[in-house]
Amino acid sequence: MPLALGIVVAVSEESLEIEKIRLEYEERRKDLQTLLDSSKSRECQLIALYEESRKLWIAGNFKALSELLDAEGFHYFRELKEALQRQGEKVVDLSEKLGGISRNLEKGIVCPKCDGVGTVVLEKRYERSGGQIIPIAKMQDCEFCRGSGKITLRSS
User: Fold this and answer.
1) Rounded distance, CA 108 to CA 136, Å?
2) Torsion-angle region of 121 (φ positive above 0: left; ψ -120 to 50: alpha; else: beta)
3) What is the pLDDT of residue 123?
4) Spatial contact of 139 and 109, defined as CB atoms under 8 Å apart
5) Residues 90 and 113 in one domain
């Protein structure tokens, strides 16, 4: 009877740990989504500023161009172009990170207990045989991932 009780406790501890990991991933996804939305908004602002600045440049209205850029914290048109490029790269980077976290939440992650092997070492000892030292390991399936090497983070 105590054995059955121990299994229930172990399963609930594992479930709590998986839930903790899932919540950390959910929180990270939420933070990244907020950052991505903010970065996209800034990128749109920079695009609008670039288009307006470009029109002033083409029209030869350099005084108005200088005032517009100065009001936005830029000294040169080139600085605006560089900021726009960096912002675009930031949006792409955040999108890729968000996609990775979403995939992990959907498909699962490598088990942190067995590092994806599916088994854990219970006991390791060494024996001498013919002048060589031979490691002997007693292994069993990982209880955390049940031997699959992967844990699913999908909410039930």
Assistant:
1) 32
2) beta
3) 87
4) no
5) no
Do residues 46 and 100 share a domain? yes
Environment class of 151 (CB within 10 Å of its CB; exposed 0-12, middle 13-18, buried 19+): buried
Note whether 15 and 76 are same-domain residues: yes
One domain for residues 87 and 122: no
3-state secondary structure of 143: coil
pLDDT tens, position by position, 63-79: 999 999 999 999 998 99
**99 shares a domain with 40:** yes
Burial of 65 (C-beta count, 10 Å sphere; 0-12/13-18/19+):
buried
Among candidates 15, 28, 16, 40, which has minimal Cα distance to 102?
A: 28
> What would the two tokens of residue 15 be?
């479930």
Query: And the tokens for 82?
Result: 């560089």
On whether both 103 and 113 belong to a single domain, the answer is no
Structural domain including 52 reads: 2-107
Q: How far apart are CA 67 and CA 62, in angstroms?
A: 8
| Count of the separate structural domains present in the chain | 2
Confidence of residue 95 (pLDDT cuts 50, 70, 90): very high
